[in-house]
Amino acid sequence: MIVTLSGELGAGKTTLVRGMLRELGWLGAVKSPSYALVEHYTISSLYFYHFDFYRFEDSNEWDATGFAEYFRPDAICVIEWPERIAGRLAPVDVAAVLAHCESGRTLMLRAGTQPGKACLDAYSAATA
Question: What's the rounded Cα separation, in Å, for the pair 82 and 112?
């Protein structure tokens, strides 16, 4: 599952990832991957990778990272600043856009694949 998070600095991207991990049962610390580029969490048999490509100058830097091997069927890959690696990803399952507004923040979610649609349908049912 590939999830992209777009939004300006301070929009709440890493905070959203913390919430996702808590809902999946992660009890440990959740760090921003701003300097390490990726943080890895294992929850039972699920691999969760949180990427932050803010520091990438262009998408060619992706080729040197070796991160493509992380994108497997048993993994959730959540990517902050996906526009920095444009053209390097498989189809995105769920795209999230976070923004500041007068009353706090807004979150818009869009499914890009059938698995992404199933994920958002389950989310909608759980939060209804």
Answer: 14
* CATH code for the domain in which residue 85 is found: 3.40.50.300
pLDDT digits (tens, 9 = 90+) for 66-104: 899 999 989 999 999 999 998 888 899 999 999 888 888
Q: In the numeric block, which tokens belong to residue 95?
A: 């795209």
Place of tokens 């929850």: 43
pTM higher than 0.85, yes or no? yes
What's the structural domain count of the chain? 1
* 54 and 80 Cβ atoms separated by less than 8 Å: yes
* Residue 16 domain boundaries: 2-127
φ/ψ of residue 14, rounded to 5: -70, -35
